Amino acid sequence: xxxxxxxxxxxxxxxxxxxxxxxxxxxxxxxxxxxxxxxxxxxxxxxxxxxxxxxxxxxxxxxxxxxxxxxxxxxxxxxxxxxxxxxxxxxxxxxxxxxxxxxxxxxxxxxxxxxxxxxxxxxxxxxxxxxxxxxxxxxxxxxxxxxxxxxxxxxxxxxxxxxxxxxxxxxxxxxxxxxxxxxxxxxxxxxxxxxxxxxxxxxxxxxxxxxxxxxxxxxxxxxxxxxxxxxxxxx
Length: 235
Prior knowledge:
A five-stranded mixed β-barrel has the order 2-3-4-6-5. The protein has a two-stranded antiparallel sheet with strand order 1-7. It is α+β, with helices and mostly antiparallel strands and 235 residues long. 28% of the residues lie in helices and 26% in strands. It is globular. 20% of the residues are buried. The protein folds into three domains: 1-49 and 160-180, DNA polymerase, domain 1 (Orthogonal Bundle); 53-142, CATH 2.40.50.140; 184-235, no CATH class. The termini are far apart. It has helices spanning 24-32, 38-42, 110-113, 165-174, 176-180, 188-194, 199-207, 212-228; strands at 48-51, 66-81, 86-94, 99-105, 119-129, 132-142, 153-156.
């Protein structure tokens, strides 16, 4: 008789090797970055942000620029590139002003995940190729028309070979609930004295920023955490 596998809930102490949905190379890359557990992951902070707060029509995109646009997918397919030994997923995007092709590398599942017809928000860099301008490895999300769900600034994390920004951002999204519930050892009266937000709010804001003002407050709180981790003051 087959014994069913018991799935353990992810916690801050969960080892990276126990996380489902990531590859062996990604685990090795995370360890190379000093990330051995989920707690290490949520404290792996972005070192800068790409600004996607202003939307552009496809007709107005310029090669070399980072753009955000809302468009429908009118065609999408994945193919194996034998010359480069990788999968290439290509989608044709249409926003009513023009069309542009988006390319993702080694993500063949996107041809099944992204649907023809609905609108999505795409954010990424427009690069010149021998076949014309292309939106390369753009971020994507369903166009809900809700400004609260759109992330205008994309975090950029330190990486190691075998790990992409998209993969790391996806991991951070999986950890969001844990960030929201993380314990703050800094007394509330001390936080109030220095005008600091709770640690949980700071972690969520630094990984999923909504406004520059709140992002600045979050970074100040996390900087205070680094200072208070010295022996003279414990956070």
